[in-house]
Amino acid sequence: MNEPRIAFIGAGNMAASLIGGLLAQGVPVERIRASDPGAEQRAKISAEHGIFICADNAEAVAGADVIVLAVKPQVMKRVCQALAPHLSDSQLIVSIAAGIPCNSLERWLSAQPEAAPAIVRCMPNTPALLRQGVSGLYATARVTAEQRQQAEQLLSAVGVALWLDAEQQIDAVTAVSGSGPAYFFLLIEAMTAAGEQLGLPRETAAQLTMQTALGAARMALESDVDAAELRRRVTSPNGTTEAAITSFQAGGFEALVHQALTAAATRSAELAEQLGQ
Ligand SMILES: NC(=O)C1=CN([C@@H]2O[C@H](COP(=O)(O)OP(=O)(O)OC[C@H]3O[C@@H](n4cnc5c(N)ncnc54)[C@H](O)[C@@H]3O)[C@@H](O)[C@H]2O)C=CC1
Ligand SMILES: O=C(O)[C@@H]1CCC=N1
């Protein structure tokens, strides 16, 4: 496969991590360009990554094979409608914006439905900033096998990329991994506070919590048994872990997690309804 030319529309946090990831993978610097209205942001990206970056979105997309829409959802409609006359048939559109459905992008990016571009809609998460992200990807019917590979290469540069069969599954991905880092941060906050209340210095409680989270995630990823079995192995009969787990479950832990993720998925679908107008 020829190395695609990639244009980023919006060069904020997510775009910067994708650009950094692509360059680290060996994508040549002249294959990547970007546009952003912020002069400071342009100077920062240009200094950090050495790519061509301009203020004009139309200039950025000229000659690109892949166009990554990395602006905030609230400005997406305006950005797409202004970009529409500057696109060509063969270009792949990759959107990383939360809550913008493919059919809205198709509508905003083309005057006639039959001329709608190929679109891959992604839901990344913020650990992408450390190249430890995970993304769900959905491709419309117009996306070719080569374009799927290009989208996968892009998102794999900042973590794990997983394909979805149905666009609706993006709501579940948002609930699990898009918002997910915040759930783990909440658990880290709560365990740190509890450790402190039990007599540890705050910094010690924080380090114990964070290193435990990292170690547990790595064990779950790398072990050949599932999380339930790993949990059983820590839980001695009548021991300390059993006391804690019994207490969690008496408080309805699993039902609460189910309820919380359902609330996130429902909100994701509502946002798609609003933002896609
Ligand atoms: N699942 C998640 O946790 C995440 C999802 N996302 C999605 O990624 C997208 C980008 O988010 P961030 O990078 O965090 O935002 P950001 O605010 O850091 O970056 C957006 C950039 O777009 C630029 N911009 C504004 N108007 C523009 C225009 N008309 N043309 C070109 N550029 C324009 C801004 O100057 C800014 O640099 C969002 O749509 C967000 O929904 C991002 C981060 C995490
Ligand atoms: O909270 C939100 O709406 C966005 C989408 C996923 C993560 N942050």
TrEMBL record:
Repeat is among the record's keywords: no
Keywords per UniProt: Amino-acid biosynthesis, Cytoplasm, Membrane, NADP, Oxidoreductase, Proline biosynthesis, Transmembrane, Transmembrane helix
Gene Ontology MF annotations: pyrroline-5-carboxylate reductase activity
Record-listed E.C. numbers: 1.5.1.2
Transmembrane segments: 6-24
Pathway, per record: Amino-acid biosynthesis; L-proline biosynthesis; L-proline from L-glutamate 5-semialdehyde: step 1/1
Domain Pyrroline-5-carboxylate reductase dimerisation intervals: 167-271
Organism superkingdom: Bacteria
Subcellular location: Cytoplasm
Keyword Cytoplasm: yes
PANTHER family linked: PYRROLINE-5-CARBOXYLATE REDUCTASE, PYRROLINE-5-CARBOXYLATE REDUCTASE 3
Function (record text): Catalyzes the reduction of 1-pyrroline-5-carboxylate (PCA) to L-proline.
Record-stated family: Belongs to the pyrroline-5-carboxylate reductase family.
Name used for this protein in its record: Pyrroline-5-carboxylate reductase
